[in-house]
Structures are given as C-alpha cells and as structure tokens.
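We emphasize that the prediction below concerns an isolated chain of 122 residues; any contacts that depend on oligomerization or on bound cofactors are therefore not represented. The input was used exactly as deposited, without trimming of termini.
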Amino acid sequence: MSLFAIYGPMFLMLATAAGIAALFWGVATYLGRHKKPNAEKNAPFECGSESTGARHLKLSVKFYLTAILFVVFDIESVFVYPWAVHFRDLGWFGFVEMLGFLSVIVVALAYVWKKGALEWET
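Result of the prediction step, given as a token string:
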C-alpha cells in the first residue's frame, strides 16, 4: 500500500478545511462592511455597559473555581454518554463500573457543596 493511499485522505481533509477557512476569511474581508474606526468604536466595551475600574484588575478566584468545577462536572457527561449507548453490551460489569465512577463524582460534588464553592456570594 502506498503512502499516498494511507495519508491522502488526511491531506485532502486538511486541504478542504484550509480552503473553507480561506474562503470564509476572503468573503468576510472583501465583501464585508468597510467602516472606518473612530474613538467610540475603539472604546472598551463589556456586555453592553460601560466598563468600570482598571483593565488590569484580576478576576476573583471564585470565577476560576467555578470555571474549573464546570469543566470537571462537564467531563462527566463525556464519559456517561458512551456508557449509555453501549449499556446492554457492557452488562453488569459496565453497570458496576459506572456506579463507581458516579459515586466518585457525587462525593466530589458533596465535598464542593459542603465547602461552599458553589456559593457565588461571599
């Protein structure tokens, strides 16, 4: 089997993706609206309201903690979905393994809840 037969589909996919990205960029650049920037457009903007305070202020640790907790508990769904799809094929062994995984997640959630990490107000 030649290298082209092995790697050809991959390079075709990459070339197609690059072509679509270049097409979108070109259409947006050349057919999009060409408005000249002014002081009002270059002003800092946040959620439709004037931003207050300095831009170099650090965010609260609660923000980062909430983001990390979201990622951790969101990953749970990534593992539960394939298990649910193959539930019958896995049998009792898969069921017990998923109960173990979910028990670890529930214990982690209880710990986080007890520590008050889910409370936004301090």
